[in-house]
């Protein structure tokens, strides 16, 4: 493998790792925002199932992003770890992290709008 290709794979892996690190931070912050909304603003909230769906979405997003980060970290310095299986696990984890994050955001926004108006 040419050294510039290995270098670009390492750079790409770092970017993907940072992406999932930020997604994890956003999901964690959203959980804290939801807890604060429930504790301080909405004593008797409407549409309570949205709260559960948001928590589930953000929790699954965090877990899937962590799995994707572990797979990406295994690629750095070890190009032999890039097997079809590991790329498949990464693809599923990355998709699940993104989809469940947007599900959580959608539920959080809908919950906030419904309870403020």
How does this structure look, described?
The structure is a single chain. It contains 3 helices and no strands. The chain has helices at 3-41, 48-75, 84-116. The chain has one domain (3-116). The chain is mostly helical and 117 residues long. Helices cover 85% and strands 0% of the residues. The N and C termini lie far apart (59 Å).
Indicate the topology.
Layout: H1 3-41, H2 48-75, H3 84-116
Compact overview of the structure:
The protein is an all-alpha fold. It has helices at residues 3-41, 48-75, 84-116.
Jot down its keywords:
single chain, mainly alpha, elongated
Give helix % range. Answer: over 70%
Mean pLDDT: 88
Element-by-element helix/strand order: HHH
Query: How many helix segments?
Result: 3
Q: What is the number of domains? A: 1
Class from secondary-structure proportions: mainly alpha
Tell the overall outline.
elongated
Low-confidence stretches: none
What proportion strand? under 5%
Termini Cα gap: 59 Å
List how many beta strands DSSP finds. Answer: 0
- Sheet with most strands: none
Radius of gyration: 18 Å
